[in-house]
Amino acid sequence: MNDASPFLDLDPGGPRVSVRFDGTDHALPEGANLAAALLAAGVRVFRATPVSGAPRAPFCMMGACYDCLVLIDGVTRQACMTRVTDGLVVERAPGRDLHDG
């Protein structure tokens, strides 16, 4: 896990599985909350808003705000409502490109 993250990995010695987020492989805790595990791994931006392109990341962590939307197997899902499983391929949800200004 990324030591620079302000989020903690609660079980640093636990079993890990491979998850790819936006082309980068991460060894995340098996069965963990995907949003929490990605935050602990140092991922700061999960998507961009469609109108302004503002970066978004998990906010409520209980499925109410939709700021943690990601694409998993081509389906838009909430990362905070998804468990980490081996081989997940996760991409940022479509929105305005973060570099479009």
From TrEMBL:
Keywords: Oxidoreductase. GO terms for molecular function: iron-sulfur cluster binding; oxidoreductase activity. It comes from Rhodovulum euryhalinum. It holds the Pfam family Fer2_4. It comes from the Bacteria. Gene3D superfamilies: 2Fe-2S iron-sulphur cluster binding domain, sarcosine oxidase, alpha subunit, N-terminal domain (3.10.20.440). This is 2Fe-2S iron-sulfur cluster protein.
